Amino acid sequence: MLTDTEGIVLRQIKTSYNRRMILLFSKKYGKISAGTSIQEKGRGKSSLALRPFTYGRYELFKNRASYNINSADVIKSYYAIGENVDKYMNGAYVLEFTERVLSEGVPAPGIFHLLLDFFDLLESRDRGIGTLVLGYQIKLFKYAGVAPQVDRCVHCGEKKEAYKFSIPEGGILCQECWEKMQNQQDKTEQKSFCTENSQQHTLIYDPEFGIVNILKYFTINSLKNLKNLALKEDTGRLLQKLIREYAAYHLDASDLKSEKLI
Question: Counting CB atoms within 10 angstroms of each CB, which of 71, 120, 181, 260 has the fewest?
């Protein structure tokens, strides 16, 4: 069956017999792997549309178990990202992070348009690139259904001042609920040593540097509204650590190859 779809190239892999596998984030089918015989060295429109950081339109031959790209057209190539090392490394990290979060063959239109917004902003941005990446990840949590709850306590549901931010619980805890949890944990640990509880304790953050307010601001505002925002270095480093641990815990998105490059 012949079909077509808009898509964003996440990655490509060379295979045998001059073929390549393209990992495509398609608007219609979600994340798919598609083979193609289109030559990489060519300068035609189809060849240019098969490179990472490309948004294109793809003609696919689809059967029960696989896809093949017959032809492709570039809608927009974000070539400027590749001309700047910092932009390229951060863009590569976002592509790998997105690839890890997406489920095979499940359309994700919200994340699709979010990724395009990110590329538009990354291409034109001169400062605060790390802040933009963090904003993208926090917005992605919402579309993935694991957005942290930052406007009310995750336990009692009341709008109280944040006393702790808990990654395992998925949001903020008020002082009363936190103290109750600690008392219950102390009783449990008196009966038996619990490694899981001690590990989870390391995933608890104090709301320092206004970290909860930053999470709330990023959650409420669109990615485009963050284009002029650049966090201070210490705040950005803390938020980066929190976001990576949150993604690892709730989305199994950890140990990314590109993570060490940014």
Answer: 260
